[in-house]
Write a structure and sequence with these properties.
- This protein is mainly α.
- It has 2 domains: 7-36 and 152-204, Endonuclease Iii, domain 2, CATH 1.10.1670; 42-146, Orthogonal Bundle (Endonuclease III, domain 1).
- The protein contains 12 helices and no strands.
- The protein starts with 6 loop residues before the first helix and ends in a 6-residue tail after the last helix.
């Protein structure tokens, strides 16, 4: 069975990462990050799709409207909505297509999200990336937040890149450059990502925002 991060492991990983001067700076300034998590399943993966290239607040507003309309967000409940209803909720044409593909894959039993819990990270990513509209960032976020895997660095996450630029004083890296940088934090890249998000969100609340 694959390892799931828990609070004690998060604290222990932060102690280990404190050997890195940049991680140590974040921990000294803002402490241990929260153990952000989401329930595994269709609703979470759908919400992550909604979060692609938009603000978390915008995606949450859309997801909340969906929940208000259909109650529990299930593949069957989603599939019963027509295009007009999805547009009124806030789905773009592209994301509606992605979400329909996801719900159909589950309804037709081409995808079993429950089975992913026991697969290695690479196999989870391979399964998820068979879906239309699910790329590396989406599958990485699902691994990190829903499956609580300890060693995932979401590729192309702009908040992580901005936080690293601020903490390190370096030029903002490209997605591939930041993945290379993140290798220094193995086997706790997920915790390093949580620390950088923690820094990013904490700094945004300060007068001098990122």
């Amino acid at each position: 069975m694959s390892i799931q991060l828990d609070l004690s492991q998060l604290v222990a990983a932060c102690r280990s990462l404190a050997a890195d001067e940049h991680m140590s700076f974040i921990i000294d300034r803002y402490g241990t990050p929260p153990l952000w998590d989401r329930p595994p399943g269709f609703a979470t993966l759908l919400q992550i799709i909604l979060e692609q290239q938009v603000s978390l607040a915008s995606a949450k507003a859309c997801f909340d409207k969906l929940s208000q309309q259909i109650g529990e967000v299930t593949p069957k409940g989603f599939a019963e909505l027509d295009d007009v209803e999805l547009r009124s909720i806030g789905f773009s044409r592209q994301k509606a297509a992605y979400a329909r593909h996801l719900s159909a894959a589950i309804i037709e039993e081409r995808l079993d999200l429950g089975r992913l819990r026991n697969l290695p990270d690479a196999e989870v990513k391979a399964e998820l990336m068979k879906l239309k509209g699910v790329g590396e960032w989406t599958s990485d976020i699902y691994l990190l937040m829903a499956l609580l895997r300890p060693d995932v660095m979401p590729k192309g996450d702009i908040a992580l890149h901005a936080a690293w630029q601020r903490v390190s004083g370096e030029v903002k890296p490209s997605a591939n450059e930041f993945l290379q940088i993140s290798n220094r934090w193995r086997p706790y890249r997920s915790v390093a990502a949580r620390l950088l998000w923690h820094f990013y969100l904490s700094e945004k609340r300060r007068p001098n925002k990122i």
